[in-house]
Amino acid sequence: MLTAERTASGQRRYPDHAVDRVRLVQQLYQAGLSSKTIADLMPCIDANESTPESRARLAAERDRLNRQIAELTATRDRLDAVILASTDPARGCVVRS
Q: Which of 5, 28, 29, 31 is the most exposed place for a label (fewest CB within 10 A)?
């Protein structure tokens, strides 16, 4: 996602604008996108172009996150039920340590 030049000794040298690119990539990671998705979207980002395909890809990622959130919420609700049952044996199963 970053391009660098090499010095004669083999060290990588990045242009000044690479800092902005790193910040953008970090923002995309924080938004839940995978490195593959980010790499796939970079041509559109570089061209400052929004295509139906790039919008569909982003919407699919949002849908994936929504499914994960729903699954985690259901898991938390089940755990809450276990906690409640462990504090009120009349409700059902008792969790013992």
A: 5
